[in-house]
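TASK: fixed-backbone design
INPUT:
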């Protein structure tokens, strides 16, 4: 292990010394890092096949903007103790170049040593720094740019570190524990204001922001589950989108010394945890639209800008193909779903459960709504599918979400509402989409790059290498002692 660590130190030192040579000596003044949480090739491909189906084509791929980037690579995602990473250890690898345990953010596996992030290096050399996410700002991936904690669940501590970071632009979701775990601590938003942040949480106030506002903390006016922005499939057209947050970030961050801008589409992951392909696809398409705003900026600054797009891990074991449809896919059926699984829970199932007991509840009451919401015609289902729906409906009415005495309910429903996840499964299977898990998987993720030193991102490498590739092209000198053993 020590020999390998020394080898890695030498290799990365060499990369840092000659890295700019790969891009003819260029250095990136503006760097965008886009992370689709839970996004691997299956999620990207599903969005492209769906886009093609909307054009009336029976099969094929309608390329997303970022999948046409000239540089494309593959990154492994394992962490220090497992082939399958979580978002905390994944973002630690990407943001600092170090492996750690799942659940740990920017600290070593022993939870004693703290790692410096690419965003902190950027800030030190005078660049402005922005962090945008569709989930809460104290969630693992956004926290990975500014926080160092032994547990990703230390939400209040993470919030305090956000306030102390001095980064220039935070936007998207809210805070999971703004007043601490027990609600008795000083409010994070009030502390941010005291630390010089301009706070906005309305559409009009957000749109009115100009660089004169200084440091900005912008929380989306509409929050859905766990202080996150709504899924794109559920978003009101009058509300703000990820594109809006990227556009405003570019306006606020642009300055003579450049910027580092980290953007996460976090609910691709959440949708895949719930095996909701439609929600994942719509968020991936919205992610692509946000990336295209960065591309517009890059076209104006082609010799100074680098855009990187990747995932931190894959979620759900998503597959393009289902045993029941064999070699056929019917992605046009994805368009029949009108909302996410969480919207169905909130708008349909939860109110119904409040109004009925198990004795008075009947699946037939919900069948018209189910058909409208998911495009599932109960009468056209085969008998096993009807039986699954009936069984899951009863379990939802009983509140059997996590465990049942005679059966592994988690394997069937993943801790989600049994009726709802059964409906997403039936809708996905009809389209020819399958799932193997409600958690993360260990498959590598794609990497796409456009701009300065883009060819550094070609090839097959580890997620820790992303840090060194970014540092190299940003002209950041990283002490060799920071290189941890892989």
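OUTPUT:
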């Amino acid at each position: 292990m020590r020999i390998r660590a020394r080898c890695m130190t030498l290799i990365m030192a060499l990369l840092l010394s000659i890295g700019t040579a790969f891009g003819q000596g260029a250095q990136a003044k503006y760097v965008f890092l886009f992370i689709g949480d839970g996004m691997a090739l299956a999620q990207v491909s599903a969005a492209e096949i769906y886009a093609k189906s909307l054009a009336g084509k029976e099969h094929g791929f309608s390329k997303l903007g970022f999948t046409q980037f000239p540089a494309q690579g593959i990154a492994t995602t394992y962490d220090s103790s497992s082939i399958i990473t979580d978002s905390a250890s994944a973002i630690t690898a990407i943001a600092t170049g170090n492996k750690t345990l799942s659940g740990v953010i920017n600290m070593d596996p022993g939870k004693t040593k703290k790692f410096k992030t690419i965003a902190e290096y950027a800030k030190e050399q005078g660049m402005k720094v922005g962090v945008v996410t569709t989930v809460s700002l104290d969630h693992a991936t956004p926290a990975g740019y500014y926080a160092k904690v032994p547990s990703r669940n230390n939400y209040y501590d993470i919030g305090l570190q956000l306030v102390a970071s001095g980064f220039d632009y935070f936007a998207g979701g809210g805070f999971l524990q703004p007043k601490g775990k027990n609600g008795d601590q000083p409010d994070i938003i009030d502390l941010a204001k005291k630390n010089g942040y301009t706070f906005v949480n309305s559409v009009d106030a957000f749109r009115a922001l100009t660089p004169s506002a200084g440091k900005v903390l912008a929380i989306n006016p509409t929050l859905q589950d766990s202080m996150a922005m709504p899924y794109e499939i559920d978003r009101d057209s009058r509300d703000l989108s990820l594109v809006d947050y990227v556009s405003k970030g570019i306006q606020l961050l642009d300055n003579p010394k450049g910027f580092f801008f980290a953007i996460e589409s976090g609910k691709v992951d959440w949708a895949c945890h719930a095996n909701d392909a439609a929600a994942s696809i719509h968020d991936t398409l919205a992610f692509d639209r946000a990336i295209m705003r960065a591309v517009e900026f890059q076209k104006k600054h082609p010799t100074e800008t680098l855009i990187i797009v990747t995932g931190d891990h894959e979620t759900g074991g998503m597959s393009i193909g289902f045993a029941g449809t064999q070699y056929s896919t019917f992605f046009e059926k994805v368009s029949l779903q009108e909302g996410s699984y969480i919207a169905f829970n909130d708008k349909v199932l939860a109110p119904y459960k409040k109004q009925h007991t198990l004795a008075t509840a009947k699946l037939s009451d919900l069948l018209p709504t189910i058909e409208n919401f998911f495009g599932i015609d109960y009468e056209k289902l085969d008998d096993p599918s009807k039986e699954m729906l009936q069984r899951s409906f009863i379990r939802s009415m009983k509140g059997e979400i996590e465990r049942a005495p005679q059966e592994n309910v988690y394997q069937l429903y993943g801790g989600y509402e049994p009726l709802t996840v059964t409906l997403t499964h039936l809708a996905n299977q009809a389209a020819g989409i399958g799932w193997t898990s409600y958690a993360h998987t260990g498959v590598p993720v794609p990497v796409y790059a456009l701009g300065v030193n883009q060819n550094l991102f070609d090839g097959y490498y580890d997620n820790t290498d992303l840090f060194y590739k970014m540092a190299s092209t940003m002209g950041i000198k990283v002490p060799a002692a920071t290189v941890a053993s892989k």
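COMMENT: The chain has two domains: 2-17+28-318+439-482, 324-330+337-434.
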